[in-house]
Amino acid sequence: MRERWDQVWRGSRYLLIGLPTALATMLVLPLLMVGAISTALGVGLMLFPRIMAGLRLWGEWHRRRAAAVLGVSVAPRHATLPKGVRAQWRQLLDDGENRRDVRWVLWHIATGLPAGLAALCCVGLTVGAVVAASLWWLFPADEPLSLLVGIPVTSWGSALPMGALQLALGVALTWWAVPRLARWDARACLAALEPSAEDQLAERVGVLTESRAGVLDAHGAELRRIERDLHDGTQARLVAIAMRLGVAREALPDDSGALAKLLQEAHEGTEEAMTELRDVIRTMYPPILADRGLEGALASLTAGSAIPAELDLGELGRLPAAVEAAAYFIVAETLTNAAKHSGATRVTVRMSRRGGRLLIEVTDDGLGGADESRGTGLVGIRRRVAALDGTVLVASPVGGPTAVTVELPCAS
C-alpha cells in the first residue's frame, strides 16, 4: 500500500512538472528555426551549437527524471562543446544524439501535454473536492457551487456527501491512472532519447573499433619491446656463447676426440639457434621498422628486391605499429611472390593514405595467373589483413599483369 502511494506521489509530481515543461518545450522549435536561419547570416555559426548544447541539458534533465520514475539507470550524456567553430559544427553534424534531442522535443510535446493535463484533472478532482466542499457557503445563492456532474450544493447536508463522493472518485482515478500515465510518458521520453537498435549497433561497432585500435597499439608496443629484449639480450648472449665455444674449440688439442666433437656440435647448435632467433625476430617485428621507420624499411625492401622495384610513397603520417608491421610484411611477401612466380621484369609499389585507410598497391608486369591454392603467399597476406579488418583485392589475369591492392584501417 505504501509503495503504491509512493508511486502515486512520484507520478503526480513527475506529470505536473512535465506539463509546464512541455509548454516551455514548445518554444524550442521556433528557437531552433531562428538559430538555423541565423546560420546563413553568420551569427548562427556560434549560436546554433550552443542552442543544441542547451537542448541537450534540457533533455538530459527530463531523461534523468524519467529514469527515476521507471527505476532504471541511464548513462549520462555530456553537452560540452569543443574549442573552435569548425570543431563544434563537426561534432554537431557527427553526433547522432543531436537528432535524438530534436526528436525528443516532438515526443515530449505530444506526450507530456496530454499526460500532464490528465494528471492535473485527477489531482484537481481530488483536491477540489476537499476545498470546494468546505467553502460552498462562499458562493452566492443564485449561483451555488456544483460538484460531480453539476449537482448544486446549497447546504452542509449536500456538501459533505457530494464532496466525499467526488473525493473518492478523484482518489480512485489518481490511484489507478497517474502511475500508469507517468510510466507511459517516462518510457516515451527514454525511447525518444535512447538510440535505436541500429544506432546502438553502430555505436558498439565504433567502441569496438576504438578498443581494437588501442589493443593493436599495445600489441605493437609489446612486440617492439620483445624484439628489443631478444635482440639486445638473448641474441647477444647466444653470440657470446658461440664465441666462447669457438675459442674453446681452437684451444683444444687435436687429439681431444669426443670432447672436440661435443664442442663442435654445441658451437654449431648455438649458431643455428641464433639463425632461428633472427628469423623469429624478423617475423615478429622487423628491427628495421624501429630503426628507420616504414618509409626507410620499404626503401630497403625495394632496393634489395630480386627484380627492379619502384617505390612511390604518399604522405603517410603516423601509423599504428601493427599497421606498419602488416604493411611491411605485405610488401615483402608480394615482392617475394613476384620474384618467384611471376616472371616479371619490374614491380611498382605504391602506398598512400586516404583518410582513415592505408592503401597499398603492388603491381608487376609478369605472366599473371596467380593462384592462391598453390601456396603463393597470398593466403598469408589475406589472413594478416583480415586480422586488422582490412581488404585484399588480387587481379591477375593470365598473361598479366598482376596487381595486389590492400586497404588497412589506420585511424589512430
UniProtKB/TrEMBL annotation:
One of its GO terms (molecular function) is kinase activity. SMART domains: HATPase_c (SM00387). Residues 322-412 form the Histidine kinase/HSP90-like ATPase domain. The keyword Lyase does not apply. Keywords: ATP-binding, Kinase, Membrane, Nucleotide-binding, Phosphoprotein, Transferase, Transmembrane, Transmembrane helix, Two-component regulatory system. Pfam families: HATPase_c, HisKA_3, Sensor. PANTHER family: NITRATE/NITRITE SENSOR PROTEIN NARX-RELATED, NITRATE_NITRITE SENSOR PROTEIN NARQ. This is histidine kinase. It comes from Nonomuraea africana.
